[in-house]
Amino acid sequence: MIGVGKVKQYTNVLDKPLSKGKQEVSLSAFAFLFSELVQYNQTQVDNIAELERRLEDAGYGVGVRVLELLCHRDKGNRRETRLLGILSFVHSTVWKVLFGKVADSLEKGTEHEDEYMISEKELLVNRFISIPKDMGTFNCGAFVAGIVRGVLDSAGFPATVSAHFVPMEGQQRPRTTILIKFAEEDGNLAQREREICAKNAAFMWIYFRRKCGPALLSFQGRVVLFSARTNGLSAARMRERDLHIMC
Amino acid sequence: MAAIYSLFIINKSGGLIFYKDYGSAGRMDTNDSLRLASLWHSMHAISQQLSPTIGCTGIELLEADTFDLHCFQSLTGTKFFVVCEPGIQHMEALLKHIYELYTDYVLKNPFYEMEMPIRCELFELNLSQAIRKDRIGLVGR
């Protein structure tokens, strides 16, 4: 019959395409669920540090899954390999998907080389929560810190992430800062960045010499063979890659 | 010039969980406020039984010479009542707004134990903002 549409039946649920899903969830529903999560963990621990660690662990699982999902959905199955790239990915894409808006700011720490801070006027998870005075500096944003840690860890940038309240003059409520401290020592991270830079440079070299066929290139004492695999990428993509090289 | 003299919130068993004084007479003694709250709770319950109308849910408005008392009871039995100047019209709306603030900043707070006195900073902050806005609206009229 003409005009009768037929929905393709999938026998296996794993074959169904991943839909975009609902973009929005009720804030109240989340707030109650999160409140219950905090209360449940409170009954299981003896002190505040332990509670914070548990909330972080809960967020870690979310972070790992969010990275996988967003790389597939929004980034076309590519993930960031550069430090600034992954940080801006967390700051904009992850925040947008989870909280509906881009984070307020991303700053580099002034005291140490490998410290970065994402700050927010008020975290969504903290919107309805008032911390009692006797809990001191505890911040339920530890959950969000766990999410960031999960994303960074799975992307290959192990880090310690924590959430802090930063009081601001002239404002009643303190700002929240997510402090990211990368675990690799200064040398290692910089070394890795240099290596990636070098590999990209080699890539660009190959692109310009494509006409000559697969090339054998010696770089920094190591022999790197780029095969015809590189030809799979369109010329436009290659050019885009070149622009990202910042050596 | 304050329109509202005081605000009380009582839990379903009649215990006072929140009391805020806005009047110029100064804050009532804690024991007195507790007594007043349980007094109102009992009166509310008795009136529900005594009422000649069917399906009565209790006293909503008490008018006296020098003050009015507006009461709002939620579905769960928590009562919000304000003692205010006589003749103010829009108290129902304000009480409903306060109830919304209660559901947001008290019930969604993981550190609040049910039926216990309210000690939530965000609730008090937003409440004073709401009362201030209400007062400005009233003076402007």
From TrEMBL, chain B:
Keyword Endoplasmic reticulum: yes
Annotated compartments: Endoplasmic reticulum; Golgi apparatus, cis-Golgi network; Golgi apparatus
Alphabetical list of SMART domains matching this protein: Sybindin (SM01399)
One of the record's GO cellular component terms: Golgi apparatus
CDD domains, A to Z: TRAPPC4_synbindin
Keywords assigned: Endoplasmic reticulum, ER-Golgi transport, Golgi apparatus, Transport
Record carries keyword Zinc: no
Pfam family, any one: Sybindin
GO biological process per UniProt: endoplasmic reticulum to Golgi vesicle-mediated transport
Recorded superkingdom: Eukaryota
Quaternary structure and partners: Part of the multisubunit transport protein particle (TRAPP) complex.
Family, similarity comment: Belongs to the TRAPP small subunits family. TRAPPC4 subfamily.
Designated name of the protein: Trafficking protein particle complex subunit
Higher taxonomy: Eukaryota, Viridiplantae, Streptophyta, Embryophyta, Tracheophyta
